[in-house]
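STRUCTURE:
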């Protein structure tokens, strides 16, 4: 069962959250604290899977808390409670490692949705990690230059393509990208064959569908990079954009989104990078939720 730790200087908030979590069967509340400093001392002993923390607290703000807690327990997922809509504060929170925001005053529907999303994502990421970083082994994260060949299909698509996936790719501007169909093929494979991923690299998977698996990997990487650029442009226009809030942190590393923003604005000569493993795992999670 998922272990959840709560941090808020208002006891009524932690109390309400505990009631929602337990009544909704979202996990076990392994502890709660109304003091961020005390909470940092408790975390190593309680070892929660998820920490829900308030953004604004008198002794230590939530962003600083997350930065410190991440060093103690890097595998923990953080959800932040907030009434703040400041771009800078939201950006700092994402950069510190926050997965999602829950707006105050809290309500049971949003709490359930966010915790279930984080739980599924965390579970799937841990499963994939056991395969010793299969995507990194394929060389996809390192980046590959050169013009990709089209390749030929060996097996076509696996099963029925999740409609949810097509909507997500459309939302992030990838429906017309050359690599979008390749992403659909790979994500569909993971959705339908999660039990068969052990020992397989992304190159192995691409080999099931293309005579040119390397080219297929290149197309996927370039499409993902285009998605990152689209997210950065949305963020520059409006941090409050619904699509940006939904996918900037969920599919990409927010620090890399900010880096891409700087490139677009001419503040940097380097693009942001896409963590392909995070990108694919998050898409699988979104399609199976």
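SEQUENCE:
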């Amino acid at each position: 069962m998922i272990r959840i730790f709560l941090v808020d200087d208002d006891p009524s908030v932690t109390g309400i959250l505990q009631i929602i979590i337990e009544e909704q069967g979202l996990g076990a509340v392994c502890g709660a604290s109304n003091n961020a400093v005390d909470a940092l001392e408790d975390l190593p002993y309680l070892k929660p899977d998820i920490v829900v923390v308030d953004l604004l607290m008198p002794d230590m703000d939530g962003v600083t808390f997350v930065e410190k807690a991440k060093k103690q327990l890097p595998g923990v997922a953080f959800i932040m409670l907030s009434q703040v809509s400041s771009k800078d504060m939201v950006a700092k929170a994402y950069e510190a490692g926050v997965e999602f925001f829950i707006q105050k005053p809290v309500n049971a529907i949003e709490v359930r949705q966010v915790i279930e999303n984080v739980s599924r994502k965390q579970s799937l990421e841990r499963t994939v990690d056991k395969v010793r970083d299969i995507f990194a082994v394929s060389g996809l994260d390192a980046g590959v230059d050169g013009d990709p060949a089209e390749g030929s299909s060996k097996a076509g698509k696996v099963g029925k393509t999740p409609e949810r996936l097509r909507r997500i790719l459309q939302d992030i501007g990838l429906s017309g990208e050359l690599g979008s169909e390749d992403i659909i093929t790979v994500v569909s494979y993971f959705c339908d064959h999660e039990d068969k991923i052990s020992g397989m690299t992304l190159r192995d998977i691409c080999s099931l569908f293309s005579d040119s698996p390397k080219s297929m990997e290149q197309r996927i990487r370039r499409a993902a990079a285009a998605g990152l650029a689209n997210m950065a442009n949305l963020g520059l226009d409006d941090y409050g954009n619904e699509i940006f809030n939904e996918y900037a942190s969920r599919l990409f590393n927010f620090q890399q989104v900010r880096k891409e923003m700087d490139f677009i604005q001419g503040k940097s000569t380097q693009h942001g990078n896409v963590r392909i493993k995070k990108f694919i795992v998050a898409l699988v999670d979104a399609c199976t939720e």
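REMARK: The chain is about 55% helix and 10% strand.
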